[in-house]
Amino acid sequence: MKEFFPNILCCKYLLNSIKRLGLVIFCLCFMFIYGTYFFRTSTSRQPKSDLDNYTFDYLIENDICENVPYLLILVHSASNHFEHRNVIRETMGNPGGKLPSIKVAFLLAITEDLQDKIWEENQKHADIIQGNFVDSYRNLTYKHAMGLSWASSNCNRTKYIMKMDDDIFVDIYQLVDYIKNKLGDLHLQKNIACYYQRSMPVVRDTVSKWYVSKTEYQSDTFDDYCSGWAYITTPKVAGLLYEAVKKLPFFWVDDVHLTGSAAQVAGVGRIRLNQLYALETDGLLDWTRSKAELRWDKVFAPTWGDLDLSRRAHKKARMCHNRLCKCCYRKPTTPRPTTSSTTVKGSAQLIVFPIH
């Protein structure tokens, strides 16, 4: 009998140990399931903040479309580009002539050490929309989405929208003429008119500013998209793109994400205007220096921040608009030097490519 009680006690101790071990295993399993499923769901599938849901608070906002403009220009601008913005105000924001009403809205984000200067700038011009996120290259998707959201909500009676960067020259006179006579309502109610990029390779070089990892973007080619330099659309399309981007995982390359992936989700088409874009400044420089009173054969061109070039180009575009310049100035091709051959003498033939 005395030997029986220790055995019972041992059995009870063993059973209690098994229960405790089972409880520990159950807790570990529960924590594993929670960590791999519920936590992943809460961090990846659901928004972590209002910003992740593309819901923006504005540090600065203005009623820019109170007097409904024909064209609203949304300008992506870095916080410290004060002079870039002034040049755009002087030129595209004040084109003169008999153009329909044009308004400019500068899209900014937060740069704390410049905030006082930005407040002063806005008090003077009242044309800034500033979002509640840090101004950085990797936040351009937020800035792009903010602009589309704001425009579709606050400027829905505006006829057309142009989104552009602040280092791009746009011949505003030729652009308005092109919209009126060649694009029109029917084309832009469900489309974006732009420099159309097809099958562009994803940059995998880790030292590049534009490096994109496989985790960020699986495919080695981007969805077809519109260059973010400058494109034209309508408030309706802006709203469609904004609603579509909220359904997609975040991606920081803004033009690919908004005018490529989100456009596909929204069923928004792209109109190819590549023939109107210059990809370098050479042609723009030549045209501004030329004494020929001819319109340029391009509408859009990069200035790479050369503000003097922007001013000169706009001045010439305005002159051509006022004087009804004929089309079109083309960058001259330099002929080869004459040959010293004894059998053939003369200049090489110049080949002129057709203008679309």
From TrEMBL:
Which keywords fit this entry according to its UniProt record?
Glycoprotein, Glycosyltransferase, Golgi apparatus, Membrane, Signal-anchor, Transferase, Transmembrane, Transmembrane helix
- Give the UniProt subcellular location, in the record's own words: Golgi apparatus membrane
Q: How does it sit in the membrane?
A: Single-pass type II membrane protein
Q: What class of enzyme is it?
A: transferase
The Gene Ontology terms for molecular function here are: hexosyltransferase activity
One annotated Gene Ontology cellular component of this protein: Golgi membrane
- Can you supply a Gene Ontology BP term from the record? protein O-linked glycosylation
Q: What is its main location?
A: Golgi
EC assignment: the record states 2.4.1.-
The record's comment on protein family reads: Belongs to the glycosyltransferase 31 family.
Listed name of the protein:
Hexosyltransferase
Organism, as annotated:
Oedothorax gibbosus
